[in-house]
């Protein structure tokens, strides 16, 4: 890997910080979600139910432990660390004019601590953390007004932190909501709770459009504030393979990938691709897309593509000439790969495939900002032997290296997801663990919050020290 390649780890504010109602922070959307499980969706509550357990309220209390945690990251050799700025810490309700100074100070201190330890911040603006008030009062991203609220937030952040933070991401995994039948994905991406009888697909496309406009505006503003800033999009990259070389499977895979990745086309190229225009026409969606939006999309194309990679999917042709894709129904099993305890397909080669796919299509620098293995750990006397995690990461890093060293893709860095155990986004569990650092806390919220190094800690330390030579 080249000498500037950035190795590190990643989390999101709501999954680690806790301190959910401290120093002026308002409730965000993740604060309203109860704990779920491998086969149990997280319930979204309308108010905080007294006595109920909300895993993100305390999380791993990074808010009060960040110095200790950053010291551990430094010991592992991290050159960068990705987290997010919790929107509701800066704008507790979301529609205020002025930010909450206490919230801003927390990130002043956090970034300073990181930089003091030689760790570059990689910062996401919106990682499932919009103020819940915006959901209640405005209906989340179904409302065009959200663009202004987001831009106010983004501008405050760019102005305040541009000397400390060079790499930014706008919306985390903006394309999760392409699975429009998943209430959890639409709520966490867009703060939308569906009404009975509405066309969910249309609602999601409208919200997505507003987010893409907001993202493009943010890119433009960031560059006006400081032309050296690098602003990226962030895509959940789950390539969809054809089940076989049957031409029907091949075509279905093209249509399915269009539906998951059109977001990247707009972020990178600055306009809607032909297949989306035809799709909107056919569906007769009549979306609120004005000329000014199209202009801003052109002016705010991203500087790099950040993505998460955990798995690949597969589809079979089904005779639908339009190649329509409904993720809640259309995926099929890939017989060549195994799955995790949470049913996530494990496909290391898919990472090399992904890097090539994005490189061929866009020729922009890329950043792998999430990759990792959620697994049950056995903790005994302060020790966790997590060979399975090392094996997963080793296989993925090898594929990443092959993509860079053999295929010549342009990659800026790699951050392992959940480098310290944190609350699972999809299930709210603590025991779906990704970390190199074990945090003593269980699914029911009990534990001392003490941190311990797992076996993977020294393994990753060696990987970084040798710039990926020794895996
Ligand atoms: C991504 C998200 O979807 O995957 C993270 O950006 C999330 O927030 C990660 O934590 C892993 O998912 P989970 O559900 O296992 O925590």
TrEMBL record:
One of its GO terms (cellular component) is cytosol. It comes from the Bacteria. One of its GO terms (molecular function) is beta-glucosidase activity. InterPro entries: GH, GH_1_N_CS, Glyco_hydro_1, Glyco_hydro_1_AS. The active site is at 370 (nucleophile). SUPFAM superfamilies: (Trans)glycosidases. It holds the Pfam family Glyco_hydro_1. The keyword Nucleotide-binding does not apply. The keyword S-adenosyl-L-methionine does not apply. One of its GO terms (biological process) is carbohydrate catabolic process. Keywords: Glycosidase, Hydrolase. Belongs to the glycosyl hydrolase 1 family. This is 6-phospho-beta-glucosidase.
């Amino acid at each position: 890997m080249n000498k500037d390649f950035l190795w590190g780890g990643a989390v999101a504010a709501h999954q680690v910080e806790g301190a959910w109602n401290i120093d002026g922070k308002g409730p965000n959307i993740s604060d309203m979600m109860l704990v779920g499980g491998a086969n149990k969706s997280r319930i979204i509550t309308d108010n905080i139910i007294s006595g109920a357990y909300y895993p993100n309220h305390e999380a791993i209390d990074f808010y009060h432990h960040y110095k200790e945690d950053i010291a551990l990251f430094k010991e592992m050799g991290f050159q960068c660390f990705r987290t997010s700025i919790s929107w509701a810490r800066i704008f507790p309700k979301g529609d205020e004019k002025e930010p909450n100074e206490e919230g801003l100070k927390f990130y002043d201190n956090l970034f300073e601590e990181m930089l003091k330890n030689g760790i570059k911040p990689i910062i996401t603006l919106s990682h499932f953390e919009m103020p819940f008030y915006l959901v209640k009062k405005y209906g989340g991203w179904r409302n065009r007004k959200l663009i202004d609220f987001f831009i106010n937030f983004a501008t405050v952040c760019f102005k305040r932190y541009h000397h400390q933070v060079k790499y930014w991401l706008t919306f985390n995994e903006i394309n999760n909501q392409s699975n429009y039948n998943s209430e959890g994905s639409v709520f966490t991406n867009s703060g939308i709770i569906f009404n009975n009888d509405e066309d969910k697909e249309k609602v999601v496309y409208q919200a997505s459009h507003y987010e893409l406009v907001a993202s493009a505006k943010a890119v433009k503003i960031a560059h006006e504030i400081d032309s050296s800033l690098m602003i990226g999009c962030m895509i959940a990259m789950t390539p969809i393979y054809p089940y076989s070389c049957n031409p029907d499977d091949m075509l279905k895979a093209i249509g399915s990938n269009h539906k998951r990745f059109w977001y990247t086309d707009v972020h990178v190229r600055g306009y809607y691709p032909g297949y989306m225009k035809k799709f909107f026409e056919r569906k007769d969606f009549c979306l609120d897309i004005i000329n000014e939006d199209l202009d801003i999309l052109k002016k705010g194309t991203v500087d790099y593509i950040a993505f998460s990679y955990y798995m690949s999917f597969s589809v079979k042709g089904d005779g639908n000439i339009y190649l329509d894709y409904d993720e809640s129904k259309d995926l099929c099993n890939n017989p060549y790969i195994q799955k995790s305890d949470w049913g996530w397909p494990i496909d290391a080669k898919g990472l090399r495939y992904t890097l090539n796919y994005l490189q061929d299509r866009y020729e922009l620098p890329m950043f792998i900002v999430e990759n990792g293995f959620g697994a049950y750990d056995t903790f005994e006397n302060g020790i966790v032997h997590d060979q399975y995690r090392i094996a997963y990461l080793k296989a993925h890093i090898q594929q990443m290296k092959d993509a860079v060293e053999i295929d010549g893709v342009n990659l800026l860095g790699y951050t392992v997801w959940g480098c310290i155990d944190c609350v699972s986004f999809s299930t709210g569990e603590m025991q779906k663990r990704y970390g190199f650092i074990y945090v003593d806390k269980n699914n029911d919220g009990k534990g001392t919050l003490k941190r311990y190094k797992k076996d993977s800690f020294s393994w990753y330390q060696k990987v970084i020290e040798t710039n990926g030579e020794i895996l």
